[in-house]
From TrEMBL:
Its EC number is 1.17.7.3. Belongs to the IspG family. It holds the Pfam family GcpE_C. The gene is ispG. Gene3D superfamilies: Dihydropteroate synthase-like, Sulfite Reductase Hemoprotein, domain 1. It comes from Desulfitobacterium dichloroeliminans (strain LMG P-21439 / DCA1). Transmembrane segments: none annotated. This is 4-hydroxy-3-methylbut-2-en-1-yl diphosphate synthase (flavodoxin).
Length: 359
C-alpha cells in the first residue's frame, strides 16, 4: 500500500506522519478533574493498545489536573480546547504533549500568537479539528450547507493562521458523521497539504453502527494511503474503540497487533456448534497480550474443506460428527473428541503466547 508522505510531528515520544506506523488514539470520557478515574481509564486504553490519548479541558480545574495526569499517564496526552486560549496556555504549562485547538475559534490574533509561542517553546503540535457540525456561518452560506469543500476551506483558514505565525507542527482532522462527506473532505485535504491527517468518523454511534461507519470511512482512506493517526469514535467506554481500531489497521496490513480469527460461515456439512466454539475462541483471543508476530486462528465447520480453507492459519480446529481435527498451518496434527477440541486449541494458543508474547 502506498501511503501519502506527510510531515512528521511528535506527540511525546509518539511520531505521527512522515511514514511512521498509523497511530491509534482515543479520548477519555471521565471528568478530567477526577485524576484517579482519568488515569485509570488512560491505563486501560494503553493496555488495550491505544497510543495517544485526548482529554477534554472544560475549565481551569481540569487544566490544573493535567499536570499530574500528564506526569503519570502511560500515554502522551493531548488537551482538547475549544474557545478559551487561557485554557490552552494553562494546559501547555501543565505539561501536555499536544493540543487540539482551532486557532480561528479563540479570538484576537494576539491570543493565537500567545498560544503559538507557548507551543513553539515546548514543541507541542496542534491538531486542527474541523467538524461538519460546527462549520463557520460564512462557509455554510458560501457553499449553501455542509460540503467537503467547505470543510477543507475551514481547515485551511485555521492552518493559515498558524502558518502566518511561523508554526507548522500541525495535524488536521475533518470529521463528519456522514461517511461520503468525510471521505470527500479528507481526499481534498490530502491534495492540498502535507500535514499528517487524523482520520475518523465523528458521532459514529454505538458499537453496531459505529464500527461499520468507521471501518468503511477510516478503512477507505487508509486503503488509499490517506491517514497517519485514527480514532474510532463509539458511544460509551472508549476502551472498546481500541480493538476496532487495531482490527482496521490489521486487516489493511498496516499494523500487526491483534489476532486474525477466521471462521467459516457454516453450511449443511457443519455438525458441531461452530458459532459457540468461534465465540469462545474469540473471547480468548480478545484478551491476549501483544505478540511479536501475527497470529491467525481458524475455526472451521468440517474436515472436508476446513483445514484447506484455513491453510495459512497458525492453528485451527475443524468440526466433524462428535469429533474434530486440530491443525497447524493447514496440516492435521490430532483427531480429538468434540469436548477436547476447544481446550486443545486454547492450549496451543497459550503456548504461542508464551513464546511470542511481549508482556
Ligand atoms: Fe461448510 Fe466445511 Fe466450508 Fe464450514 S468449512 S462452510 S462446514 S464446507
Amino acid at each position: 500500500m502506498n501511503r501519502k508522505m506527510t510531515k512528521a510531528v511528535k506527540i511525546g515520544d509518539v511520531t505521527i506522519g512522515g511514514g511512521a506506523p498509523v497511530v491509534v488514539q482515543s479520548m477519555t470520557n471521565t471528568d478530567t478533574r477526577d485524576i484517579p478515574s482519568t488515569l485509570a481509564q488512560i491505563h486501560a486504553l494503553a493496555k488495550a493498545g491505544c497510543e495517544v490519548v485526548r482529554l477534554a479541558v472544560l475549565d481551569r480545574d481540569a487544566g490544573y489536573a493535567l499536570q499530574e495526569i500528564a506526569l503519570q499517564s502511560a500515554l502522551p496526552v493531548i488537551a482538547d480546547i475549544h474557545f478559551d486560549y487561557q485554557l490552552a496556555l494553562l494546559a501547555i504549562e501543565q505539561g501536555v504533549h499536544g493540543l487540539r485547538l482551532n486557532p480561528g475559534n479563540i479570538g484576537a490574533r494576539w491570543k493565537v500568537q500567545e498560544v503559538v509561542r507557548a507551543c513553539k517553546e515546548r514543541e507541542i503540535p496542534i491538531r486542527i479539528g474541523v467538524n461538519a457540525g460546527s462549520l463557520e456561518k460564512e462557509i455554510l452560506a458560501k457553499y449553501q450547507g455542509v460540503t467537503a469543500e467547505g470543510m477543507v476551506e475551514s481547515a485551511l483558514g485555521h492552518i493559515h493562521l498558524l502558518e502566518e505565525e511561523g508554526y507548522d507542527k500541525i495535524k488536521v482532522s475533518l470529521k463528519a458523521s456522514h461517511v461520503p462527506l468525510m471521505l470527500g473532505a479528507y481526499r481534498k485535504m490530502a491534495e492540498c497539504v502535507d500535514y499528517p491527517l487524523h482520520v475518523g468518523v465523528t458521532e459514529a454511534g454505538t458499537v453496531r453502527s459505529g464500527v461499520v461507519k468507521s471501518a468503511v470511512g477510516i478503512g477507505s482512506l487508509l486503503a488509499e494511503g490517506i491517514g497517519d493517526t485514527l480514532r474510532v469514535s463509539l458511544t460509551g467506554d472508549p476502551v472498546q474503540e481500541i480493538p476496532m481500531a487495531l482490527e482496521i489497521l490489521r486487516v489493511l496490513g498496516l499494523r500487526n497487533r491483534g489476532v486474525d480469527l477466521i471462521s467459516c460461515p457454516t453450511c449443511g456439512r457443519t455438525q458441531v456448534n461452530l458459532a459457540e466454539l468461534a465465540e469462545k475462541v474469540e473471547d480468548k483471543l480478545s484478551n491476549l497480550p501483544p505478540l511479536d508476530r501475527p497470529l491467525k486462528v481458524a475455526v472451521m465447520g468440517c474436515a472436508v474443506n476446513g483445514p484447506g480453507e484455513a491453510r495459512e492459519a497458525d492453528f485451527g480446529i475443524a468440526g466433524g460428527k462428535g469429533m474434530g481435527l486440530l491443525f497447524k498451518k493447514g496440516e492435521i496434527v490430532a483427531r480429538l473428541s468434540e469436548e477436547e477440541l476447544l481446550p486443545a486449541l486454547l492450549q496451543e494458543i497459550e503456548n504461542y503466547v508464551k513464546q511470542y508474547g511481549k508482556d
